[in-house]
Every structure is written in structure tokens, then in C-alpha cells.
Amino acid sequence: MGICKLGYVGLEVTDVDAWVDLFGRTLGVGVTPAKIGTQEVALLELDEFKYRLALHPSAQDRPREVGWIVDSPRELDRLTQRLTDAGFAVGEGSADEVELRGATRLRWFTDPVGYRVELAVGEAKVRTGPARPADARPGVTGLGHIVLAGPELAELRELYESVLEFRLTDYRAPGLYFLRCNATHHSIALARADTPSIHHLEIEHGSIDDVGRAHDRALANGVPISISLGRHMNDKAISFYVRNPSGFHLEIGCGGIEVGEGWIPHDFGTSDVWGHRHADANPFASPAS
Description:
The chain is α+β, with helices and mostly antiparallel strands and 289 residues long. Helices cover 19% and strands 39% of the residues.
């Protein structure tokens, strides 16, 4: 079985208050303050689990960790061996890190673009459901997927497909690949870019009405919409994107398809069925070869 889903993302951010304000004005999401050691961290309440997105105050904006949930200690050991055999140095998470994640076991390694990737066993439920304003209920249901870009695209594909056993769902030639670790169309997409970056994180919603209400709140509150409302061609999700204070996109979406064991990877060609007009240049309009 191995990795079963995207668990959480940690970010170092220069303006925590701006992030909290963005989530509040757009999604009605609350925040839990916490500490790791002596450092304060803001945990965004996306669902009933402890957190999906952690904001660490910092002098620069950058990813801190990407966390994947592994379904058992035995599978954690198996994946650790696969990583070690592939030349990755795997470390143990500290007691403070394990506690903050709400995990029972935690290991980590550095991926080919220099990001810390964590493998965690266990998730702590800390609420029956997050509090939401009346116009944001039920609203957010969790963290959907992440899109990573960097110059080491071949190495990233080797890591996620050959070592961590993700499966290729589809792609756009010559440099954008969508991978899954469960029935959801994709939990991560990998793209070629000149410098490592997160292109976007997707915040999952339960219905088109939830996405529409979030869109209304974004417009009413002056939130910068970086990509307009639209439907993707490959996973059929309906979404819009906002630019966050760290400079990359948050996708607000719902309705992505699930795929079965008989799914055949293919080039899906056109990026969107309709919509998704970019306010700025789209780096994936014609992926670099």
C-alpha cells in the first residue's frame, strides 16, 4: 500500500498575518496557534485533523516540508529501505516534530530539488469539524494536491514513480506530469521550471456551491484572483486560483475525478474545458522541453 495521501504542507512565510487574513476572507478558515520547540506556528483548520497547512514565521518565503501519510509502520520501513537503496539519506523526525504533526512515527529525506519530504504514520483528529462562518459552511474539506516545479524533473519523476510508487495518471508533453497515490486523479503534479518552486496548493471543497461562495467572498473582499473560474480538462475539477502572500497560487476547487486500476496514462492535450484565464503569464502554457 505505502503512501496513501498528501497529509500536510509546512511553509516558512514572511507575513503570517496576511496568510491568516487571506484564508479568513476567502475560505472562512480558522487558525490554531501552536509551538514547535520555542517557535510559534499557525495551523490552518481545513478539516477535523490537527492541520493540513502550517505557517512558520520566517525572514523568507519558502517551503518547509511536504508530508505524506503512510498507512502502517511496516510500510514506512519498506519505503525507508527503498529510499536508502536509491541513495537518499533518511532521518528520524524529532519528538517535537512528531507531536506537532499528530503522527506516531515520522521520517524525512531531501528530494532532488532540495525540499524536505516527510513520511508520517498516523493522523490526530482534534475536532469533530472546524468552525466556519455561516456563508462558508460546509466549505473546505481538506488539502487536495500540490504542484512542484524545478529543473530536476527527471529526478523528481524517478523519486515519486520508481521509489515512492506513485502512478502516472496523465501528462502534457513535454514537461508536466500528474501522479496519484490513491484513487484521486492526482495528489502531486511535477513540472519543469528554471528554479524550484511550488506552483500551487489545492484546497479541496465538497461542492461547486462551496467553490462559488468562496469565489463570491474573494471578489467581495478584494482577494487577488490569479486564475479565473474554470474546469480542467484532465481531472474535470472546477476551480479558481488566488495569489497568496508568498507569491504562489492557491487553487480553490472541487469535483476532481477518481480513476481505477485499468486507467491508461495519456497526453490530455488542452489544459482546460473552459475558463481558467491567467492574470499573469502561464508558465505551463507551453512547458519547456
